[in-house]
Amino acid sequence: MSEYNSEISGFYNLSIKKRRKLLSKLIKFNEDEIKLLENLGYFSESQIDTFIENVIGSYQLPIGIACNFKINNKDYLIPMVIEEPSVVAAASNAAKIARKHGGFHSENVQSVMISQIQITNLKKIEDVKKKLEEHKETILKSANENDPLLVELGGGAFDFEVRELKTRKGDMLIVHLLVDVLDAMGANVVNTMAESISPYIEEISGGKIYLRIVSNLATYRVAKCEATFDKDLLGGREVIEGILNAYEFALADPYRATTHNKGIMNGIIALTIATGNDTRAIESGAHAYAALSGQYSPLTKFEIDSDGNLVGKIEVPLALGIIGGMTKLHPMARLVLKILNIKTANELSQVAAALGLAQNVAALRALASEGIQEGHMVLHSRNIAKLAGVPENMIEKVANKLVQDKKIRVDYAKEILRRMQNNENL
Ligand code: NAD
Prior knowledge:
Elements: H1 16-27, H2 31-38, H3 45-51, E1 63-71, E2 74-81, H4 87-99, E3 104-106, E4 112-120, H5 125-134, H6 136-144, H7 148-152, E5 156-167, E6 170-180, H8 187-205, E7 208-215, E8 222-229, H9 231-234, H10 237-252, H11 254-274, H12 279-290, E9 300-304, E10 310-317, H13 331-340, H14 345-368, H15 372-387, H16 395-404, H17 410-421
Antiparallel strand pairs: 1-2, 3-8, 4-6, 4-7, 5-6, 8-10, 9-10
Helix pairs in contact: 4-14, 6-8, 10-11, 10-14, 11-12, 11-14, 14-15, 15-16, 16-17
The site of nicotinamide-adenine-dinucleotide has 24 residues, from helix 7 and helix 8.
């Protein structure tokens, strides 16, 4: 590895093959590793080279289907791309429990995104606010000139709000341009608009504009969904009591709320990846929303109805698109939309919210009853067996033994393998 050096000039300009060749010289790939990199899956070389920079190959993850979902009286099979075992099974189980009382009820999700324009160096802020209001029509018209297709389809910039911020660098005026981005995630759409109207806003405000960029805190694009989870199918009153206690714990403690919300994002992000959407936008928006009150809080709420069933509600901003970005370019993402049988970004967000709620209920139920490890580790035991180098034909056997002995550890898997190979009695 003496040649290993990260300073490579012009890597960007090389073809994928030449990048691999160069890496191969530095890292000394074996034949299997070269084959791994050469396998682009469903992408062509020219296609994949345009998605990001310095591409050397493609990266695969498993895709599974969460079953049993009924949302607003329509059935959905939900594709999930995730590396973690037991998540898909958990979502399917919770969806089955919700089905008994009609499934999930999601509200329409508006596709409104916010683009921020930061005006600094202002003398009379009140005068500037007035001027912006007077020029509103011209500003919105000029923003919309950037995207005639979006406007033709019924979307576009329709308003803006102005916020005053006190900062260590003086008072700032922040314009929030509001844009209906329809079926797109919308970041590029609103960024382009904000950049194009900024010179005009700078001129009429007399200030200096720095940032012009989407806000990932999409407070006008909040998905709201609820469902009733049957008390008997959940496991009875004691389990519900445990879930309510877990919820109170999360409400009172950000350490717990973080893990509570991580469970929700297990579902939402798996669908975000499956549809080729921007996971970082969804994550940052959800967590900022969870902290809006000043205390980081759970994104779900729970109560008991008059029959003793558990009612769960979720509220989370979801900037998900079915057009734009990678969504339409990724062959598997297109297939995912076909499996989902959805036609709008609004519907996708409704499904994602239901999935997040289901995931959360499943995790809380497991925590409140058998504990998360039992269900989790049964599936995980196979991965542990693989990690321990157990040959394919013995994985099931070794994994079962790990679960039976409640010792799901690599060292124990190795020991079991050795004993099995020596024909010892286990
Ligand atoms: P885009 O710009 O690729 O495509 C949107 C365009 O599609 C619209 O401008 C419109 O003209 C057209 N369109 C056709 N039919 C439409 C319909 N039915 N609804 C809406 N638009 C339609 O996509 P985008 O959604 O603006 O951008 C998404 C990408 O931006 C993602 O890849 C994301 O990662 C990236 N991004 C994110 C951030 C951020 O989140 N902070 C910042 C920059 C870029």
